[in-house]
Amino acid sequence: EEPRARAGLTLEGTRGAEGRLVVDLRVVPMAEGETGERLALLVVDDVSEAAAARARALQAERLAAIGKMAAHITHEIRNPLSSIGLNVELLEETIAGPDDAEPAARARRTTEAQKLLSAIAREVGRLADVSEDYLRVARLPQPRLRPLDLCALVREVIEFARPELDRARVQVSLTLPDAATLVAADEGQVRQALVNLVRNAREAMEDGGELRVSLAADARAVTLAIEDEGPGIDEEVRQRIFDPFFTTKSTGTGLGLPITRQIVEAHGGTIACEAGAVKGTRFSLVFPRG
Fold first, then answer.
1. Are the C-beta atoms of residues 40 and 27 closer than 8 Å to each other?
2. Are 263 and 193 in contact (CB under 8 A)?
3. 20 to 30 Å CA-CA from 95: which of 80, 213, 220, 249?
């Protein structure tokens, strides 16, 4: 094969008790020799130490990520478990009341027991949500790409979210092309990403407002914008909005937006968060055309 400038190859092997040997090979073309033969210079660098340092850094980064995840899981699970334990104790005390109590007292005990059971069920549901979020991060499969009409999917997601948007006094403004807008995508995963963003927008508008959703397409890409009229997000916070476990919500796991970004990037797209045109926050998702 003809040698080329800047051509490089990394080879790995072993060198006895000293451990792994890693070398970089580079072939540099030279001038022709006196008899017309092609000459080349073979440069061999021992990069074993650098490779070992990179491996150690990668291992340390992985361990740090595991430790961080373990700490967050412990924190997210410990609080609901403490609440469940306390409510169970109170429920036991309530049930253990005297059997000969007056009907009014028994009714009060029943009402109190129902409230405690509701609190327990709420915390169990919170634990289930936390577990589901972590499982999504750990097990999100590679997308199964199929032709998908993004316009139709946006309409379906808005209709799905319509009841909760109406309750939150959120009006929806849709700006979508009349024709189908096809991309190669996994419908389930993209639907999950859109639902996450629509719910985030609804939660940002505590006093109601307008949710603006628009779709624009050209020959190479489709851009989907979701913009709310909430209080907006500070620039410093926007820089961290896609970081795992980072959240501004009191009960959030900080995994919704990282999962959304993971989905978009797995489709070869990009997602960005910026200030809205007037106020609020705007998320822009760009998908390559299928």
1. yes
2. yes
3. 80
Q: What's residue 187's pLDDT?
A: 93
48-52, 134-138, 207-211: lowest mean pLDDT where? Answer: 134-138
Q: Which residues does 264 contact at the CB level (< 8 Å), separation at least 6?
A: 193, 270, 271, 285, 287
Question: In this model, does residue 287 exceed pLDDT 90?
Answer: yes
Instruction: Answer whether residue 7 shows pLDDT above 60.
Output: no
Q: Is 128 exposed, middle or buried (0-12, 13-18, 19+ CB in 10 A)?
A: exposed
40-46: strand order across its sheet: 7-14, 20-29, 40-46
**Is the Cβ–Cβ distance between 211 and 202 less than 8 Å?**
yes
Contacts 24+ apart (CB under 8 A), 253-256: 253/72, 253/76, 253/129, 253/130, 253/133, 253/134, 254/72, 255/133, 255/134, 255/136, 255/137, 256/133, 256/196, 256/200
> 173: closest CA among 114, 104, 228?
228
Structure tokens at 52: 């070992």
Q: Are strands 170-175 and 209-217 parallel, antiparallel or unpaired?
A: parallel
Task: Please count the CA atoms within 13 angstroms of the CA of 106 that sit on its side-chain side.
Answer: 6
Nearest-CA neighbor of 269 among 253, 285, 258, 283? 285
pLDDT at 9: 55
- Provide the pLDDT for residue 150: 94
Residue 264's nearest CA partner among 193, 187, 182 is 193
Please state, in angstroms and rounded to a whole number, the distance separating the CA atoms of residues 133 and 256.
7
Q: Encode pLDDT of 43-89 as tens digits.
A: 777 777 777 777 777 767 666 666 666 666 666 677 777 888 888 88
